[in-house]
Design brief:
Blueprint: H1 4-7, E1 8-12, H2 20-32, E2 35-40, E3 44-49, E4 55-60, H3 70-78, E5 82-87, E6 90-96, H4 111-139, H5 141-149, H6 155-192
Amino acid sequence: MKGKSDSIKRVRKFFSIAEFEKEEKYLTDMAAQGWRFVDTNGSIYTFERCEPEQVVYRLDFSGIPLDQRDDYYAMFRDYGWEYLQDSYGFSYFRKPAEGAAPEDLEIFSDGASHLEMVRKIMLAKFTPMILILIPCITINYDKMLRVIRNDSPTRADWFSVIGVTLLVLTIAALFCRMLAEFLHLKKKYSKSA
């Protein structure tokens, strides 16, 4: 007899915000292996055991506030999509793939719609990074100048400068990775626009 642990599976997996297509494929592949997506918190995915099924998962980043999404969800429902959850701005949808035409398994009708979603993601996700950096640099500006000029910096000055530098480098690395992924998506969707 199979217990609950055999019917529920949790997988730690990370997809960057620009890897939504890889995430969709991962969820679709898991369903084909007999694991239906239940939910995610952004890094841990929960699946339940099922018969292998041909379904397609799609993610959308609407930018619509959660309390104003009734019409948005209804539109997807009208086209046969099952709404699953929202996580970090993305809405998760599922639809049976068996017997469906390829164009019915897409939530966007053209490349321009995909590009608009990519633009929304960039604005929503990159803006907070900049808003974190500006005050960190502004607050520590005097300390940074003391260290750069070697004008009797204190130990606290050094810790502040090292901390801000590490923060800037981390955000710059994340930004570069996401920007490369977004440029790849932009090139891909521009061809079909």
